[in-house]
Specification:
Four Helix Bundle (Hemerythrin (Met), subunit A), mainly alpha, elongated, 148 residues
Length: 148
């Protein structure tokens, strides 16, 4: 398996949790929305951890570039972390208007972010880190077991 395929699959799993949260919220099922948000948040933060602490450092070593595309992705991750916190508050308060607005902003950022990763960054990972794929996937799996 290529890193791009693995990481892209993680994006889709996160998207599924987000859709579950959004559907439940619009039904007024706040318990299910909160549970789905918790699942979405856990999957998203784990994905950010995998990228920031395992994959990006290897890409930076391979390119010799620390302040490039990986720095942009880290900044976008920080923005999305803030939105996740705001969304959690809105759902706890059962504020549908607030949660909907934050959710729409978060979804737009996620879609743009994921598109950049999947079209630009992940193919670069496959090219530059291809020989390390098995090792990186093992490290990612270990990180998943630790966080589970």
């Amino acid at each position: 398996m290529h890193l791009s395929a693995f990481l892209g699959d993680e994006h889709r799993k996160c998207d599924d949790h987000f859709a579950d949260m959004d559907t439940a919220m619009h039904r007024g099922d706040w318990k299910t929305a909160g549970d789905a948000l918790a699942a979405f948040t856990a999957a998203t933060l784990h994905h950010f951890h995998v990228e920031e602490d395992i994959v990006f450092p290897e890409l930076e070593r391979a390119t010799g570039q620390v302040g490039g595309p990986t720095q942009v992705m880290r900044m976008e991750h920080a923005d999305m972390r803030e939105l996740l916190d705001e969304l959690q508050r809105a759902i706890l308060e059962r504020d549908r208007a607030q949660a909907t607005g934050i959710g729409e902003t978060l979804l737009m950022l996620l879609q743009q972010h994921n598109a950049k990763e999947e079209r630009i960054l992940y193919p670069m990972l496959d090219r530059l880190l291809g020989p390390m794929t098995d090792e990186l996937l093992e490290r990612i799996e270990s990180a998943h077991q630790i966080s589970a």
